[in-house]
Write a structure and sequence with these properties.
It is a single chain. With about 475 residues, the chain is an alpha+beta fold. It folds into 4 domains: about 140 residues, Winged helix-like DNA-binding domain superfamily/Winged helix DNA-binding domain (Arc Repressor Mutant, subunit A); about 110 residues, Winged helix-like DNA-binding domain superfamily/Winged helix DNA-binding domain (Arc Repressor Mutant, subunit A); about 80 residues, no CATH class; about 120 residues, no CATH class. About 45% of the residues lie in helices and about 15% in strands. The strands form 4 sheets. Strands 1-4-8-7 form a 4-stranded antiparallel beta sheet.
Length: about 475
């Protein structure tokens, strides 16, 4: 799945690339000076693999979080966004013949798009390459190189990834067995030395050998290019000037399908994560499954859909299904296994009326408290704007009443709170989104089965919508 967005139309395009497992880039970009974090490199390579040969301009690249999860350890939502933000500050330094240099940022855009806001219905990390990279990534006809994406992404070290990229390029995909480099120049490519020599990491040969040792280990575990051996050439008793690599090619390596530390990609988990995102669950879907368990999350989705279906026939439909799911998971609704087949306690009409009125009153009190908090925290200028909007939008009868009480007192507060809540729905918590969400975990309902609960909630909704109803 490939989800680029045109910068002009902002319309998702699903592209099937038969060669999308390859990263194609100009030789000068491979041999540039670059420094970044491991996950930033992974994100760059994933984005590069999505560029088609015929592209004439950069498309905004949307990389699904479910795909990032294969290669980014930890929380893919947090780590993906962190990597995208970090790339905005990373600079690529093109080293030109004769000592010239050209520097520019890798990317010009970083964004996280929740599934419910993405036209394709998937949560994505969005980046856009700097236009200065066009000659190095678009419509390459000569002086370019291709490297298999799956060889590099699993490597747990940025230094190993970068060295693999350089050696793959210079060995012509492993067809050359020996390569020699000036150590200082190789460090510049990897990002361990400033091109002007202002700083250098792992300067002693014994320290740089630790980087090489880790690379040998990673090359042997991942990819088809192997370091059979390496040796340093002394410049003096204590300093080394050059390094010689002996390489070999494994044409049928066992490549891992995900990086170490990446979440378990059980198909059932992936399917449930995708469904959570499709329904508008904006929090960490992987974390939800890990915290609450597969079965509890599945049951929660079923209960939430049932609540949405029932509410659709009322004047209080559920607009934020993802928020309801989050609330139900937090409150442990699905963990309480309520079934319609169990013997239910029956309510008399008097008991039902009493319980329904208590729930409706409690919900209204919670809404009132929230409205009071919103008003208290509102700057004076914004309060004046609310009053002006009320004068313009409320009926003349109601405005006359407010004028008669001089916009103060209990009656005014009630009208104001109703207006504030109606015009600031986004300020409501998931629990206050509707009465059903508010009462899902109410202990007064937990002793009753589905049928009785629905009877109570139906009456409570009626009382809340029509407070004078008796």
């Amino acid at each position: 799945l490939f989800l680029p967005l045109s910068m002009e139309t902002d319309t998702p395009v699903i592209v099937d690339r038969p060669d999308r497992g390859m990263v194609r880039q100009a030789n000068a970009l491979v041999k540039s000076a670059q420094t970044m974090e491991l996950n930033e490199k992974r994100l760059i390579m994933l984005a590069m693999s999505r560029i088609r040969w015929g592209d004439e301009e950069f498309l905004t690249q949307d990389i699904p979080v479910t795909e990032l999860a294969k290669w980014i350890g930890g929380n893919p939502y947090q780590e993906g966004r962190k990597a995208a933000d970090g790339l905005l500050h990373r600079v690529v330094d093109i080293l030109e013949d004769g000592g010239g240099q050209t520097k520019f940022q890798w990317t010009t855009l970083s964004a996280y798009i929740p599934a419910h806001k993405h036209k394709a219905g998937v949560a994505c990390v969005r980046i856009r390459f700097n236009e200065e990279l066009s000659p190095f990534l678009l419509q390459l006809r000569d002086r370019y190189n291709q490297i298999p994406l799956a060889h590099m992404l699993p490597m747990p070290s940025y230094n190993s990834q970068r060295l693999y990229e350089i050696l793959w390029h210079d060995s012509h995909a492993g067809t050359k067995s020996f390569l020699s480099y000036e150590i200082e120049q190789l460090k510049i490519y990897i990002g361990l030395r400033d091109p002007k020599g202002k700083w250098e990491k792992y300067k002693p040969w014994k320290d740089f050998r630790k980087v090489l040792g880790k690379a040998v280990e990673d090359f042997n575990s991942f990819g088809s290019l192997k370091i059979k051996g390496y040796s340093g050439k002394r410049q003096s008793k204590r300093a080394y000037s050059h390094i010689l690599f002996q390489l070999k090619k494994d044409d049928s390596p066992a490549l891992p399908q995900r990086a170490a530390g990446a979440p378990d990609l059980d198909p059932k988990v992936m399917s449930l994560v995708a469904e959570l995102e499709r329904l508008g669950y904006v929090q960490n879907a992987f974390g939800a499954v890990e915290t609450y368990g597969l079965e509890v999350v599945k049951r929660t989705l079923d209960l939430a859909r049932e609540a949405e279906r029932k509410a659709a026939s009322t004047n209080k439909p559920i607009y934020n299904l993802g928020g309801l799911i989050a609330s139900m998971l937090k409150q442990g609704t699905a963990a309480r296994r309520v079934t319609t087949t169990q013997e239910e306690a029956r309510l008399t009409n008097q008991e039902l009326e009493k319980l329904a009125r208590a729930l409706a009153d409690a919900y209204q009190e919670a809404l009132t408290a929230r409205a009071n908090v919103l008003w208290t925290e509102m700057p004076e200028a914004e309060r004046q704007t609310v009053h002006e909007s009320m004068r313009a939008e409320l009926s003349s009868t109601l405005v006359d009443y407010l004028n008669s009480v001089q916009w103060q007192g209990r009656g005014y507060v009630g009208v104001r709170n109703t207006y504030v809540l109606d015009t600031r729905l986004d300020a409501l918590t998931e629990e206050l989104a509707d009465l059903e969400a508010y009462t899902f975990s109410d202990p007064r309902l937990t002793t009753y089965g589905t049928i009785e609960r629905e009877r109570v909630l139906e009456r409570a909704r009626s009382l809340h919508d029509n407070p004078t109803d008796t």
